[in-house]
Amino acid sequence: MAVLTSCGLTPIHGNNSTYNHKLSSIAINTPHSRQGQLFSQTLSDLIDNNTSTNTLYRLEVSLDTDEVGLAIQSDRTVTRFRTIITANYKLIDTANQSIIRQGSLKRENGYDKTDSEYATYIAKQQAIENTITALARDFRPLLASAVAQ
């Protein structure tokens, strides 16, 4: 019978109570904007953020949005845009105020400009929301690996 031994690694996904407790004790500070609110709420849901637990870490995030015209017609009208959102972040240990990890993550999304201003506005807002949601999802494994150390 073969004997299996552990490699010593601990999974960061699933029901690991140590990581889940550490993740849920991260206070999220974002800009006071619709984008910041959406990012904070989505990330809070993903890490099961519990404001009643002791805050072990503080995540400070700034969101920068840029828009670039992609499809430019011969009459110089733009018919497709790319929305680029960059999240600059610092994860801080609240016990000693040291920076555990810092950096930036970037996500892009696109939308079409139509003849209807309203349809274009809705497409742009949906592209921004989808990009913010994707950025928040990118943060969960990043935070899990940071608090695991």
What would you say this structure looks like, in words?
It is built from three helices and four strands. With 149 residues, the protein is α+β, with helices and mostly antiparallel strands. It has one domain: Double Stranded RNA Binding Domain (2-Layer Sandwich), CATH 3.30.160. A four-stranded mixed β-sheet has the order 1-2-3-4. Helix 1 crosses helix 3 (117-148). The longest helix is centred in the C-terminal third of the chain and has 32 residues, at 117-148. The relative contact order is 0.18. The mean pLDDT is 86.
The H-and-E topology, N to C, reads as HEHEEEH
Radius of gyration: 20 Å
Distance between the termini: 35 Å
| Category from helices, strands and their pairing | alpha+beta
CATH class: Alpha Beta
Name the CATH architecture.
2-Layer Sandwich
Task: Kindly estimate the percentage of residues that lie in beta strands according to DSSP.
Answer: 25-35%
